[in-house]
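Thread title: Can someone regenerate the structure for this chain?

I was given the following input by a collaborator and told the matching structure tokens would be attached. They weren't. Posting the sequence so someone can regenerate them.
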Amino acid sequence: MESVLSIVFCLTLLYLAVTRRLESYVQMLALQGILLTAINILPLFNGFRPSDLLLPAILLVVKAFFIPMYLNKIIVEAELKRTIETTVQNFTFLLIMLAAMAVVFVTARILSASMPVDTIVFASGFSSVICGLLIIMFRKKLIVHAIGFLILENGIFLFGAAVHFELPFLVEIASLLDIFIVVFIMGVALNKISSAAPETETAELTRLGD
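Best answer:
Regenerated them for you:
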């Protein structure tokens, strides 16, 4: 079941590569939060303590509900244009993503022969990291860069499930705090920049003087 959910997770990455709608980015981010929650809950069916449900609950609330709602609030209040400008064509972006995912899946398959790694989950996590980096590189809007960072974080969470290794709880919470911080800072930055660069695209920042 983890593999099936991971494949669905990969499909959200491919959809992000071809869509130019800002709302779609937020929706896919929420869907990824739900998928991550489900992936972290599945191992608990083999036996768990009530405290083991805390992290999945936090993931669901923060990644699937709070952050998408906050991002939508920023989009509305900053009156951002809903179409995302890109530095590469969507088809080119999709080809890059497909090539990167192919390399990642082949590498994960090779690694699984020498170490206990769930190939599909591991490859999905690493693909998410690459997708987040590509979004930051090839998309112009600042808020999309924040979403790219959050997608990268989602990939890191998948690594834990892939190697069947329990991160210390405090480390996992610290990762969630990173997400809170980046979204908070991005909200402040967008509110400050919107008056000087209404579309809040990175290209506009080069025109701002000291």
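The chain has one domain: 2-205.
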